């Protein structure tokens, strides 16, 4: 017999897992389907390649859903300062500090796997949530209010509401016929997990160069994650280097404040794409996280806006449908979520595009403009506060659990 659920979340990544945890106190019966098997955390292990800068809003959401303690118990690095500047020695630089606005920190850098492990640990404690993993989807038969999902282990499940949390290449989104608007940035990102001569840092910095930014994200101890944005060809060339030669290239290109880099532990590269779903919902299906939007990672906002999607959707499913006669999976209810999130995500995408175009450029008027911009952002209190509240995820129509 087919097993029936109110909500089936396809993708137990950071965003899908958070939605399941946020539905803990509801009457909804929830299943999370995840195809990957996560290796458990070993405190002596090297840092993973994939890390994220989590905003204050994300910390609040993860804390509220009961996953934050599991993150802190594993490995996390708070940052209190954020610095941005241009390549040239004489150019403006701007330093933002949490002290300026009375916070203890601006955010945390965390390995993605640790966030996911803590979320999954939490959702396994919930009575109304089943985690079905590792298993893939073999077929999706979309039917509003009663979609049928076939799993690779032969099981068949029925969902009133299907949630696509299965990332940028979302199978669910394609199966239900929601298109995307997409283009590739002419930039790839090389991510390197390294150890440096310096002990633990409380600063994240980004230097803008005409070919793309260079970023430093602190991890615990003397570990750090470096991100080097450049043309697809140059990133492919850098990635093909031996670790020894890559270290030389990093040392040559990155600013002196990085210090000596001792080891390169792992390296990966990522094509950068902007992608936005044409709709976030229709009867019986809804998109969250990268399944709905992918943005340039230069300001580290992708998962942060995904967690806001998850929190707002949980708020709408548990609040809005109770206030109306509409079914919780109907487009009438889901449109409230779409309205609250789509415009906010679009404005963040547009801000990232503006950064990408203004900073990855050697055009003289733009150079002047961005230097003026950096000086203004650094000196004027309202502008500083605006930049900081953006980076901390505290802008816009926030769900109650992020306030
Ligand atoms: C270089 C780089 C740096 C970044 N840095 C930051 C940062 O600092 N801060 C930030 O906020 N964001 C950052 N991002 C963006 C961030 O990584 C993504 O926005 C985030 O991972 C999206 O989370 P998600 O859960 O929506 O999707 P995903 O992380 O893609 O998770 C999708 C999940 O669904 C599962 N899945 C997929 N298909 C199926 C299926 N058919 N059946 C079952 N399960 C399935 C996958 O296994 C996975 O667990 C960065 C991105 C890049 C490329």
Outline of the structure:
Belongs to the UbiH/COQ6 family. It is built from eleven helices and 19 strands.
Defining key terms:
alpha+beta, FAD/NAD(P)-binding domain, D-Amino Acid Oxidase, Chain A, domain 2, 2 domains, 8-stranded mixed β-sheet
Give a structural overview:
There is one protein chain. With 403 residues, the chain is of the alpha+beta class. The protein has two domains: 3-79 and 104-182 and 276-402, FAD/NAD(P)-binding domain (3-Layer(bba) Sandwich), CATH 3.50.50.60; 185-273, D-Amino Acid Oxidase, Chain A, domain 2 (2-Layer Sandwich). The protein contains eleven helices and 19 strands. The strands form three sheets. Strands 1, 2, 8, 9, 10, 11, 17 and 18 form an eight-stranded mixed sheet that branches. A hairpin with a 2-residue loop joins strand 17 (281-282) and strand 18. The longest helix is centred in the C-terminal third of the chain and has 29 residues, at 331-359. It starts with a strand and ends in a 12-residue tail after the last helix. The mean pLDDT is 92. It binds flavin-adenine dinucleotide. InterPro entries: FAD-bd, FAD/NAD-bd_sf, Ubi_Hdrlase_CS, UbiH/COQ6, UbiH/COQ6_monooxygenase. This is UbiH/UbiF/VisC/COQ6 family ubiquinone biosynthesis hydroxylase.
Q: Rg, please? A: 21 Å
Q: What is the strand content?
A: 25-35%
Low-confidence stretches: none
CATH superfamily caption of the largest domain: FAD/NAD(P)-binding domain
Gross CATH architecture of the largest domain = 3-Layer(bba) Sandwich
Coarse shape:
globular
Given helix and strand content, the structural type is alpha+beta
Q: How many independent structural domains?
A: 2
Task: Name the helicity range.
Answer: 25-40%
Q: How would you state the average pLDDT, rounded? A: 92
Distance between the termini: 43 Å
């Amino acid at each position: 017999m087919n097993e029936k659920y109110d909500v089936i979340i396809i993708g137990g990544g950071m965003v899908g897992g958070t939605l399941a945890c946020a539905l803990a106190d509801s009457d909804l019966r929830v299943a999370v389907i995840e195809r990957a098997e996560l290796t458990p955390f070993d405190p002596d292990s090297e840092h993973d390649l994939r890390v994220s800068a989590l905003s204050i809003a994300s910390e609040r959401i993860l804390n509220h859903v009961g996953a934050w303690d599991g993150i802190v118990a594993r490995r996390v690095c708070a940052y209190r300062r954020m610095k941005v500047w241009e390549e040239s020695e004489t150019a403006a630089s701007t330093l933002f500090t949490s002290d300026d606005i009375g916070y203890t920190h601006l955010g945390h850098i965390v390995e993605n796997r640790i966030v996911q492990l803590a979320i999954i640990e939490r959702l396994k404690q919930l009575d109304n949530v089943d985690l079905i993993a590792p298993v893939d989807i073999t077929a999706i038969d979309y039917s509003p209010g009663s979609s049928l999902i076939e799993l690779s282990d032969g099981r068949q499940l029925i969902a009133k509401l299907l949630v696509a949390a299965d990332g940028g290449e979302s199978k669910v989104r394609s199966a239900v016929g929601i298109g995307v608007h997409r283009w590739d940035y002419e930039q790839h990102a090389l991510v390197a997990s390294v150890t440096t001569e310096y002990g633990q840092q409380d600063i994240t910095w980004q230097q803008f160069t005409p070919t793309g930014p260079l970023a430093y994200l602190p991890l615990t101890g003397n570990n750090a994650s470096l991100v080097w944005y450049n043309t697809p060809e140059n990133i492919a060339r850098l990635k093909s280097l031996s670790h020894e030669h890559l270290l030389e290239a990093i040392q040559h290109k990155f600013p002196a404040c990085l210090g000596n880099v001792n080891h390169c532990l792992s390296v990966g590269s990522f094509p950068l794409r902007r992608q936005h779903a044409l709709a976030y919902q229709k009867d019986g299906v809804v998109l969250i996280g990268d399944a709905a939007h992918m943005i340039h990672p230069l300001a580290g906002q992708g998962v942060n806006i995904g967690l806001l999607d998850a929190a707002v959707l949980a708020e709408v499913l548990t609040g809005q449908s109770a206030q109306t006669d509409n079914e919780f999976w109907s487009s009438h209810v889901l449109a409230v979520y779409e309205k609250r999130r789509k415009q906010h995500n679009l404005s963040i995408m547009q801000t990232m595009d503006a950064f990408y175009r203004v900073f990855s450029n050697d055009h003289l008027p733009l150079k002047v403009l961005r230097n003026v911009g950096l000086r203004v952002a650094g000196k004027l209190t309202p502008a500083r506060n605006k930049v900081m509240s953006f980076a901390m995820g505290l802008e816009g129509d926030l769900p109650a659990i992020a306030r």
